[in-house]
Design brief:
Layout: H1 5-10, E1 18-21, E2 25-29, E3 37-43, H2 58-74, E4 82-85, E5 101-105
Antiparallel strand pairs: 1-2, 2-3, 3-5, 4-5
The structure holds 2'-deoxyguanosine-5'-monophosphate.
Residues 5, 14, 16, 28-32, 40, 87, 93-96 line the site of 2'-deoxyguanosine-5'-monophosphate.
Length: 114
């Protein structure tokens, strides 16, 4: 999608610090980190929100979570613990309308979230 920031990161129009890439997924450092480790993990397919996923997206969504797990291990946050966040729609704080997981670690997280 031509106006999507994350699609521009995928196609290289906007630079990013890439953590992982394959034909379906991209992971990169968040530009405004809220934790010592803050990686954004996205499908290359443009899906605006969790409300828009289809059965056919199940495989790539599972791959996003498996990749979050392996990046957490690589970043050495797996043992202490980490948080996966997916904001859906404005009430949850979604600001970029290309579905993404935040992988957060390196500090203590509280519950309930803000
Ligand atoms: P959300 O609020 O859940 O939609 O999260 C969007 C995240 O995307 C937010 O934490 C900041 C990050 N972000 C937005 N624009 C850019 C960018 O151009 N580069 C990078 N690396 N991250 C971005």
């Amino acid at each position: 999608m031509e106006d999507c920031i994350f699609c521009k990161i995928i196609n290289g129009q906007i630079p990013s610090n890439k953590v992982y890439e394959d034909e379906d997924l991209l992971a990169f450092e968040d530009v405004n980190p809220v934790a010592p480790t803050h990686v954004v993990i996205i499908p290359k397919k443009h899906i605006e929100t969790l409300n828009d996923i289809q059965e056919e997206d199940a495989g790539v969504l599972a791959s996003l979570l498996l990749r979050a797990q392996s990046i957490a291990t690589e970043k050495e946050i797996a043992e202490d613990g980490y948080r996966i966040v997916l904001n859906c729609m404005p009430g949850a704080g979604q600001s970029v309308y290309h579905i993404h997981f935040h992988l957060l670690g390196g500090r203590i997280f509280h519950w309930p979230p803000g």
